[in-house]
Amino acid sequence: MSRILFRAALLCSLAAGAAAGVGAYTFLYAKGASYLTDDPAACANCHVMQAYLDAWVKSSHRHAAVCNDCHTPPDVVGKYSTKGLNGFWHSFAFTTGRFPDVIQATPRNRRIAEASCLKCHADIVEAVSGPHGAGERIGCVRCHGSVGHPR
After folding, report:
1. Phi and psi dihedrals of 94, rounded to 5?
2. CA of 150: how far to CAs of 87, 99, 122, in Å?
3. In 3-state terms, what secondary structure has residue 81?
4. Tens of pLDDT along 122-132?
5. Range 66-71, long-range pairs (CB < 8 A, 24+ positions)
6. What is the pTM of this model?
């Protein structure tokens, strides 16, 4: 019986070691540590994001905000859980070749971006009446989606 347990433990250890090795290799190959920073260049590690980085460099928001300021919640847990979740799905799509030509934000990511607009521009939004109907919810990104970088 102990021989069977030993073999099972050995196989489990080998499988766990292989999974850890593949995970570590992937993390290093994908420059995973860079995603823990606020450096906008980290967002362009994946070549499909390079055009967005280039557009941000030319935008008016370049001097006011980096990618994380608009695309992640301000709290530490929200920021890193969002980065982890988005990173997982971006990696999955990139690895499987299912990356769309035009990247679309998920409803959750749109809510994060809208909340980020309000962090800096709440006073402007309160003063806006303009083309928005009474009681209509104002969606900053709907009209101003190309401010940080063209979509």
Report:
1. -65, -45
2. 21, 18, 22
3. helix
4. 888 777 656 66
5. 66/38, 66/39, 66/40, 67/38, 67/40, 67/43, 68/38, 69/116, 69/119, 70/113, 70/116, 70/117, 70/148, 71/109, 71/112, 71/113, 71/116
6. 0.73
